[in-house]
Amino acid sequence: MKYSVACNWDPALLERLSKEASSVNSLFGQITDDPFGGGRGSFLAPKGDREQAKAFIAEARKQGLHFNYLLNGACQDNLEMTRQGNRALFDHIEWVAATGADKVTVTLPILLVWLKRHFPDFTVVVSSWARVANVKRAKYWEDLGADEIILAEYATRDFASLKALRQALKCKIEVIANPSCLYMCYLDTNHINMMSHSSQGGHVSGGFVLDHCQVYCQRLKLGNPDEVIKARWVRPEDVGDYEEIGIDSLKLLERFRNTETLMQVVRAYEDRRFDGNFVELLTLPRRDAYNPPNLEYLIRPDVVNIDLMLEMADIFGYSFSDVMQIDNRALDGFAEHFKTHDCYHSSCEECGYCKRWAEKAVRVDEEKRRAILKRFDLFIEAIIERRTLAENVPLDVDHIQVSPEAVSVLDSLMAFVPPPLAEIARAKTIHGAAQIAGKDKNSKEDQEVGTEAIVHAFWLGTPEASRAPLQQALEQMGLWQHVAARERS
């Protein structure tokens, strides 16, 4: 079995793959704010510009790896048929060709046709977002010239369809190995278009998205562990089942994983064995496993309430693997059922197969789950009540004096804040520091706060998902002791 691995633009990933992996033959990725948009919003996708991407792709190709550049946005706002929009897209494709990338992934049929006519050297891959899950739909794409098709996630355990697809198609077939998407997710179409536009450079949204689909999705999986079992992942131990059918490659996610955890996934699938919490291989929140979110796309005071968006960022700072453990060894034999069972035409409630396996293999920390579910429910209520759209009320901090040393420290800390948020973050930090220092926030008398309170207030105001790199920076700046002292007390 060959593997296609997510690209996080970290040169260390190429070094690790060259030394530790033998079955990886392709990487897939996309620069930030790509004009086509893609599968991950700019707030999630690893940051990479054209220069960085070109160097990375050149090195990957030097190592004998294919590079699959993603042109897989599901909607172009109809601009692809205008002179200006079409020219911009074709200019970008010409740049992709110049990088040395030899494969591209598309969701739009017209783009496949254009590529085959104007860029015949590319191997063109059909995205899973095209939702190919049966022979009829696949044949449309193959007849257009598709060289490879990535199947929709919900087809992964439909072994009858997999066999029929392999028998009917000449093109290559790829299956996504480690997704955590809800089976037959009702949010699917909404989420696909949401991610496309939130990663599309030049879009009117400016990359902003309140990913309510992810909020509802995580809420369902936390509340119902059998939904995680139903998600269409492939265990490393079951790779042989797909190899036997003739599936050409497995796709390993996730682009915003750091290199160490990407290599954890690669090792597990190459070894065809994983001893541990299977959740760690899936695309679920996990502290220190993913690159921090690009908050400048989320924290937009011009369009959304900042307090609630920071709350959302904080919600996703938890580790799913701390709440839910799935003993991978306890899942031995799980896949056999799907070789004869037709899930598509069955009722989960009547079948109960995945629920029984969840009872056997899943352990939940109930106290942690209740606490996180409560936070999710409060945020969902804020969305429904439209409080996320409330105006941002400026804080009055003019009466709070900050010591000269603390002002200097605060100035340096502002380098970690997205520019649109700087003014609000500064006021919140000063306000929080005054409270930490035990000052009366309603007092109009002059009052002064020092460095320790400023640093701790800044730390408390930072979403949990972004705290790891901040801690490292504070340690390098010699400021971490101010947080550590407060946290211990």
Tally the helices: 21
> What is the percentage of strand-forming residues?
5-15%
DSSP summary, beta strand count: 12
How widely separated are the two ends? 53 Å
- Biggest sheet architecture: 8 strands, parallel, barrel
CATH topology group of the domain at 2-204 and 232-274:
TIM Barrel
| Spatial sequence of strands, sheet with the most strands | 1-2-3-4-5-6-7-8
Runs with pLDDT <50, length 5+?
Answer: none
CATH superfamily of the domain at 2-204 and 232-274: Aldolase class I
Structural class: alpha/beta
How much helix is in the residues? 40-55%
Cα Rg: 24 Å
Integer average pLDDT: 94
CATH class of the domain at 2-204 and 232-274: Alpha Beta
CATH architecture of the domain at 2-204 and 232-274: Alpha-Beta Barrel
Q: Which shape, going by the Cα principal axes?
A: globular
Describe the structure.
The protein has 489 residues and is α/β, with parallel strands linked by helices. Among the domains are: 2-204 and 232-274, TIM Barrel; 400-488, no CATH class. It is 45% helix and 10% strand. The protein is built from 21 helices and 12 strands. The chain has helices spanning 11-20, 50-62, 83-99, 109-118, 135-144, 159-168, 188-198, 212-223, 225-230, 239-245, 259-271, 306-315, 320-323, 348-351, 353-361, 366-384, 404-413, 422-436, 451-460, 467-476, 480-488, and strands spanning 2-6, 24-29, 66-71, 103-106, 123-126, 148-150, 172-176, 249-252, 324-326, 362-364, 400-402, 447-449. Strands 1-2-3-4-5-6-7-8 form an 8-stranded parallel β-barrel, surrounded by 4 helices. A two-stranded antiparallel sheet has the order 9-10. The longest helix has 19 residues, at 366-384. The radius of gyration is 24 Å and the shape is globular. It starts with a strand and ends with a helix. The model has no long low-confidence stretch (mean pLDDT 94).
